[in-house]
Design a protein that fits this description.
- It is a single chain.
- This protein starts with a helix and ends with a helix.
- It is an all-alpha fold and 406 residues long.
Length: 406
Amino acid sequence: MFDVIYLCFGAAAWVLVAYKSVAWFRDRSNTDLGLACVMTGGVATVFLFSAPSLYRGFDRLVGVANLAMVFLYSSVVVFAAGALVLLLRWTAGEGDAARARARSRARAAVGGVAVLWAVAVVGFAVGRPDDVEHPRDFSTAYTESPGVMLFLVLYLAIFGASLAGLGTLCPRYATRLGGNWLARGLRVLAAGCWLGLVYCACKLTGFVLSWAGHEALWLSNGVAPLSASVGAILVLTGFALPAAVPRAAAWRRLRRLTPLWRTVTAQTPEVTMERSSWSGRWPFADLEWRANRQMAEIRDVQRGIRRHVESDAVDIARERARTVALVDRQLAAVAEAAALRRGLENRAVGHVPAHGADTVVVAAGAEPVELAEEYEHLALVADLYHSPLVETVLTELRQRSAVPRG
């Protein structure tokens, strides 16, 4: 069971690493994104080596018992080093001089971590007394070995220091950012850091109890790894949220807008822009760009058909929508869908009313709308485009235009 759980989380984490790495390769100047890739890769490696079968298989391959634990903890130290560099960058201040100081301090911090970890690995090499595999109880199996204890204590010190700093700083930055998804991601990341500190505290408490003659295996081998696993999941979630949620929203918008976009641009292919090469090969590529493009092209079509829409078409659609007690946003979407269909219909037959509409874009209120609200409005227009109510409005408009004017 542990194999399946850890390997699944590890695979998911490496997918996230690959996704972030592609974004970083497109923007090499984004140092924070590069650090996020490194830190996420560290967490992903931890999940993989936490799988007992992979742990034992690696040790059989290299012929050294428990060497997988060194790689596992080294991955945690890589995460910790990345966190320390992030802390120094975020607290450096503005200006070239501040950034130069941050780079100098980051190099010193990474060098210090490397020296401490080298000492820890030497302690592991000296203190490991047997060839028995301990993928689940390594920290409690060697409590009488000073070398292994040095290895473990240095690991917990490096890890705990980075978690404390990152867990403290992330909420502060989240407060400055407001309510966007980056702020939410930072708060989730902070929660993961605090759970990681619970893991460190459980391990250290377990060591002290063991040295005092009171074994607490439930704490060291039960509560500690559980808190670490949940904390790692929260850290990965914190890294994923700022990118995943907006793209998921863009995918939903795109799925709802695409039928309307195809319909309204079929007669006016000149308004469509060239598709990205990635979009044709990978359906999840450039989601936000494609959603923006589709909305802009639908709006272009709407501007081009205003003169083909009767000036009272929107008012008629509103009146019919009110009879079925729709809320304001649905009423506006019905009116816009009806006007859009009527304009395309009239243009197809070359009909230009004597009095055309000033606009066929119908807002639910007088206040300017945010981009996300405009997306939602246009998606609702797409949902209602072929609704029976819109058909009723179109039927009335056709009958009115068919009646000879005296």
